[in-house]
TrEMBL record:
InterPro entries: DUF3024. This is DUF3024 domain-containing protein.
C-alpha cells in the first residue's frame, strides 16, 4: 500500500505551516528561509540563503527529507550528508521513523540537536 493522496496532502499542509511559522518576521539576511519541495511519497526541506542586498535566494541547503515507507507503514526521517561531494540521505539517528507526522515535524521544528537550522 502506498501513501494515500490524503496523507500526502496532509504532509504538504503541515510542512507548509512549519515553513510559514519559521519564515514569519525573520530577517532573511540573517537566518534564511525555510522551503520545501514535494517528492514522491514525501517532501524535501531546504534552507534558502540570501545575500544581504537581495530578495532572491543565492543558494539552498538541504535540511531534511520525510518519506512514507509503504511496506512498514511508517514515516521516515532523513538528514543530508555529503560523501565525496555527493549528497546522501541517511536516517536521522535520534528519530529515524514515526507512525505520526507530528512527531517528526515537532523534532524538525524544535531542532534539539541543532542540526537543521544552524
Amino acid at each position: 500500500m502506498s501513501v494515500s493522496q490524503m496523507a500526502t496532502s496532509r504532509l504538504h499542509k503541515l510542512v507548509q505551516t512549519l515553513c510559514a511559522r519559521r519564515n514569519v518576521n525573520l530577517p532573511v539576511e540573517a537566518l534564511g528561509k525555510c522551503l520545501y519541495e514535494p517528492i514522491e511519497n514525501g517532501v524535501e526541506l531546504y534552507h534558502a540563503h540570501f545575500l544581504l542586498d537581495s530578495q532572491h535566494s543565492e543558494y539552498t541547503s538541504p535540511i531534511a527529507k520525510i518519506l512514507f515507507d509503504a511496506k512498514a507503514q511508517l514515516w521516515c526521517f532523513y538528514v543530508p550528508i555529503y560523501r565525496e561531494e555527493e549528497l546522501v540521505w541517511v536516517p536521522y539517528e535520534k528519530l529515524p521513523t514515526s507512525q505520526t507526522l507530528e512527531v517528526l515535524l515537532a523534532e524538525l521544528e524544535s531542532d534539539p540537536q541543532a542540526c537543521f537550522w544552524d
